[in-house]
Specification:
It is built from nine helices and no strands. It has 209 residues and is mainly alpha-helical. Helix 6 runs antiparallel to helix 9. The longest helix is centred in the middle third of the chain and has 32 residues.
Length: 209
Amino acid sequence: MKGILLKDLYIAKSNILVTVVSLIVLGIGLSFLLEASALLVLAPAVSTTAVFISITSDASSRWNKNVITMPVSRRQIIGEKFSFYLILAVLGSIAALIPCGILALSGMNVKLQSLCLYGSIGISAALLAGCVSLPCAYLFDPEKSQIVFMLSFMASTGMIAVLVLLTNLFIPVKCHLLLAFQIVLAIAVVCFLASYKIAVNLYQRRDII
């Protein structure tokens, strides 16, 4: 699986570099209008686009048909895409933290609680979007999976809203905002792991074309 991951990182390196630089510049620019830490909400999701570029590239080049003849299981192939997705989400978060660190060193007030809150929301949104889009990438053709990918981010916001409302039944969210979104993050991690199992089952039953 390590070799497959390196392949995707090599193909997507220019896209990843542009995304990281853009997030850093955007974070510094946004600091004049609002909290730079708010970028953490968008950064993880934006960074994961390279995963779907790699999935589309694999399908168009018939790489999926060739790799299945190699000594790797379908579970490893799927695991690599999910790992790649996580790596990019984390890189996006780190890229968003860089301008926050620069601004903090320059004397601006960057609150740790805001970083944790926005970071929890951003990672939760990315993971919940991945729960929907990654299994669909192996269920539909590349064109339809790209549409699902775009819609999945809207779906993730709806799922977060529902989870927050459910959490509010047990604890007052307004009084414990950070705790509420940490609970949402924990649920998002569980859902992401469950979607990995679903994607493996879908890929194992599907013919490689």
